[in-house]
Amino acid sequence: MAARPGGGGRVRFNVGGQAFETTTTTLANAGRDSMLGALLDSSWNAPQAPGPGEPEAAAATEYFIDRNPACFAVLLDLLRTGSLHVPPHLPEKLLYREALYYGLLDHVRAARWGAFDGDRLRLASSVPGRAPGDGTAIRASPDGGCCVAHGGAVHVYNWMLDERRPISLDHSQVNDVAYLDAATILIAARERLGKCDGGMAAFSAVSGDLRHRFRVAHGSEPKSFTAGALAFDAHGAPRIFASCKGRLNEYGVGVWDAATGEQADFFYEPPGVALGDADRLQWLDATGALMVATLFPKTDNCSIGLLDFRGKGVAWSWSDAGTAASLEDKRVLHAIAMDDERSVCVINQYDDLGFLDLRSAAGSGGVRWSSRSKLMNRKATGEESCYPKLATHGGQLFSSMNDSVSVFSGPDHVLTSTLRRSYGGAICDFSIGGDRLFALHNEENVFDVWETPPPPII
């Protein structure tokens, strides 16, 4: 490479034998941490002397870069306009590789899709499965990648949807998986009889290597356990939560310090409250409590509670125990606390949405059911169904129903959009993160990636 940009702010490049010319203003859009932005740093470059008889202002700088010129043209246009236009003949993976070289991968990712909006999502890609059988769960990474739990393995994908090295648990069944951050994956696994395995561990999302195995101790004695549902509190001193089942009725919710990996607390299961078998955990930031939901079909009687770790008690609870049992009963299959933390949304086997008021005393108001979701029920004859799932994001409510995901908006949770594709079967799980929605189908073992198109550049 040559010297510091001169020539009145004009900079010339020779990339793979093709000439380009731009300005220092355009290069500044790359950011100082990028290779192109670093060209503007006087401490990185030495001034270029003008040639014989050439005025100092005419000393234009030219850089030779032995890289792909077609990709450089796209990236330079991105810096000029803020929008990404990829020619049909140019493979996106090649462009991503070149963007990584120039330090512009974040710019490409920001231009590739916009801020998440459930009503503007478009199907961007479908990725075929890498293993036979049904997937257990799919989880979105904070950076736009994802992972798929599959039996005793977790398949990991970066935001470009390239598969990384899978994580194998040597035949232990994965019960839940979560991202601690973009580089770390938490896995909860079932203990095998006589093996003293299972429990919970942290793995590298990049290499798949084991980073830390979380321990549970009762009375200062370490014990093996089965870990179930996972949750994470990112505020204050970050904590990790997991439902736990020990061999000697040591049931409850374990708590670990996310920084040290050491056990910080254990909330033992009180009589009549199933914590060790919990299907779902969710930390409520404003309330400062952990929602624990034990749901059908794992248990005949569904229960939802809020655990207060400061007072070591159950601050709020609801259960359908005591109601008449019949085939027509509405069984809660999934639950999620709404963004305002005033209510919990639940869904039953008929895809009906219901709401529990967290401000009522011990769930005394019961579930307010709505049957409007039946209008979207499109289950085909003979098609295998999956239990519905719920999620919230940006004030919107999302619900998987057979082969689609419904989006509800506003304070009255009005249906505003439906996400659906033509094949793959019912959706067994979905997840939102990194401004993407990932939906895992059960029949074809394929997952879809939904993105919001970037706003137009005016």
State the share of residues found in helices, binned by percent.
under 10%
Are there runs of 5+ residues with pLDDT below 50, and where?
A: 1-8
- Number of strand elements: 33
Our measurement of the CA-to-CA distance between the termini, rounded to an integer number of angstroms, reads 35 Å
Rg over CA atoms, rounded to whole Å, is: 26 Å
Spatial strand arrangement across the major sheet: 4-33-32-31
Topology:
Elements: E1 10-15, E2 18-23, H1 24-28, H2 35-38, E3 61-65, H3 69-81, H4 92-102, H5 105-112, E4 122-128, E5 137-140, E6 146-150, E7 153-157, E8 167-168, E9 174-181, E10 184-189, E11 199-204, E12 210-214, E13 216-218, E14 221-223, E15 225-233, E16 239-246, E17 251-257, E18 263-268, E19 280-284, E20 289-294, E21 303-308, E22 313-319, E23 332-337, E24 343-348, E25 353-357, E26 368-370, E27 390-393, E28 396-401, E29 404-409, E30 414-420, E31 427-433, E32 436-441, E33 446-451
Parallel strand pairs: 1-3
Antiparallel strand pairs: 1-2, 4-33, 5-6, 6-7, 7-8, 9-10, 10-11, 11-12, 13-14, 15-16, 16-17, 17-18, 19-20, 20-21, 21-22, 23-24, 24-25, 25-26, 27-28, 28-29, 29-30, 31-32, 32-33
